[in-house]
Amino acid sequence: MDAASCSGVLSRAKLPVSNLHKFNQTLGSYIVSVSCQSSEGLNNVNRVSSQALAYTVRESYLCGPVQRRNPAGICAAGVATYGENAVEYESHAQAAEDKVGVLLLNLGGPDTLHDVQPFLFNLFADPDIIRLPRLFRFLQWPLAKLISVVRAPKSKEGYAAIGGGSPLRKITDEQAQALKTALEAKNLPVNVYVGMRYWYPFTEEAVQQIKRDRITRLVVLPLYPQFSISTTGSSIRVLQNIFREDAYLSRLPVSIIRSWYQREGYINSMADLIQKELGKFQKPEEVMIFFSAHGVPVSYVEKAGDPYRDQMEECIYLIMQRLKDRGINNDHTLAYQSRVGPVKWLKPYTDEVLVELGQKGVKSLLAIPVSFVSEHIETLEEIDMEYKELALESGIENWGRVPALNCTPSFITDLADAVIEALPSALAMSAPKNISQEDDHNPVRYAIKMFFGSILAFVLFFSPRMINAFRNQLF
Ligand SMILES: C=CC1=C(C)c2cc3[nH]c(cc4nc(cc5[nH]c(cc1n2)c(C)c5CCC(=O)O)C(CCC(=O)O)=C4C)c(C)c3C=C
Ligand SMILES: [Fe+2]
Question: What CATH code is assigned to 3-262+409-438?
């Protein structure tokens, strides 16, 4: 599918990365809400500055599976109707006048090997990825520079092995086009926008396009089934910062779908893919179903209240229940992959579990990437190459891997249903400006922070002990 032909998808105009840095800085790098008040039970996550978002979040969460069971729920402006498997949008007078936008949020990935280091810089400069204590926040950028430079060679090898860049942009554009088509088939004409967190097209660009198009109602759909502070949380924080600064955007009714791993359509689509791949083994009933999720540092879950692990475990439970309903009773395991840096990450680790399973005599294994809905470096390189090799060396003889959902029709249809269900609960996201944000707008304070931060980073960079420590952890 040609992304350029997709009218709702954002244009590919390139913003220089240096502008992005400036942009982020202007909008403030302070943590705002990933609110604690939703039914996801997220507590104590940074500072909460938006009651409005908390409300929106709670409402849009209700517009998920709860409402499926009770279609007469809270939706006000439009009605979602439920057939066997279908939801259609019946527009009311107000909704018919609305110009509806759907903003797909995703991580982004380097398009070329040349992009790898600046992409990594953007990632590590995110205070939701490297969570420094408040006192040390001024080190965020120098540290990001250091880590991105040290890690870039290893990352480049990975991207080189999968064709010289990330497929994320292309796949996300295709998903956007497919979602637009699915919503139109359900009587809801929409513009679909793609906003990436760390690479083009950046979320900031997508939002500018939404403004230019004079969208009057927006559904925000992060392409992560489970919520994590480091993914959906980080993307929502960026959005809030942009929306707060702008008169039009701060009044725009928005509904954010924070997590959707529990949706019937998603669970069914995953079960379908697993069932299909199991069928390719000679003895399907003997295959170990091996879920591999992207990890997060343990502190996110245990100190910051990230619901990621709980949601992941519930997601696996739901998928396994669905398989059992179909008479599939295989053993299964969940492990976490892709750890980075010198901190403890969620366990068990994928590489260690693969070795243990091989040693225990497991002969057939089906790997299932579960935290992301597109193929990307961690499926195509880490799982398909590194983990496969490790598994075969460890005694596993028959290896299979479930493909990512990408544009699987039943999955896209379910995303369309999620959008329709969320639409009526859209509320303005506006929130008062956080006073502590003023710091970031003060050029003198900013210059002082950067000056001392750069000196410290320079010292760290040329300290042999520091270089060794990073090499050991990052390579
Ligand atoms: C739900 C998915 C993801 C979570 C949670 C997540 C957390 C997280 N990631 C890093 C560090 C890196 N991630 C990188 C790539 C990457 N991460 C995800 C998803 C999640 N990350 C995806 C889909 C991708 C691939 C993008 C692509 O180009 O295909 C990378 C860069 C690649 C590499 O060098 O390995 C890093 C680094 C941290 C630190 C973190 C939680 C704190
Ligand atoms: Fe990641």
Answer: 3.40.50.1400
Per-residue CA distances from 291 to 181, 260, 320, 335 (Å): 31, 18, 11, 6
| Cα-to-centroid distance, 162 and ligand 2 (Å) | 17
User: If you average pLDDT over residues 108-124, what whole number do you get?
Assistant: 98
Cβ atoms of 127 and 137 closer than 8 Å: yes
Question: What is the spatial distance between Cα 132 and Cα 94, in angstroms, rounded to a whole number?
Answer: 46
- Written as six digits, the tokens of 189 are 């004409």
Give the pLDDT mean for 351-373: 98
For 176-245, list the strands marked E by DSSP.
Answer: 190-196, 217-222
Ligand 2 center–CA 229 separation, angstroms? 12
Our CA angle for 164, 169, 172, nearest 5°, is 140
Q: How far apart are CA 282 and CA 401, in angstroms?
A: 15
Residues of the chain with CATH 3.40.50.1400: 3-262+409-438, 264-401
112 Cα–ligand 1 center, Å = 17
Instruction: Tell me the backbone φ, ψ of residue 97, rounded to 5 degrees.
Output: -80, -20
Q: Ligand 1: which residues within 6 Å by Cβ? A: 107, 109, 120, 123, 129, 151, 155, 166, 168, 224, 228, 230-231, 294, 296-297, 340, 371-372, 376-378
Give the sign of the dihedral formed by CA 367, CA 381, CA 121, CA 431: negative
Is 90 exceeded by the pLDDT of residue 43?
A: no
Q: DSSP strand E in 314-401: where?
A: 332-337, 364-369, 398-401
How much is the ipTM here?
A: 0.92
- In the chain, the N- to C-terminal Cα span, in Å, equals 36
Residue 167 CA, closest ligand 1 atom number: 29
81 CA distance to ligand 1 middle (Å): 37
In ligand 1, the atom with minimum distance to the C-alpha of 199 is: 28
CATH 3.40.50.1400 fits 264-401, yes or no: yes
- Encode burial over 390-409: b for 16+ CB neighbours within 10 A, e otherwise: bbeebebebbbbbebbbbbe
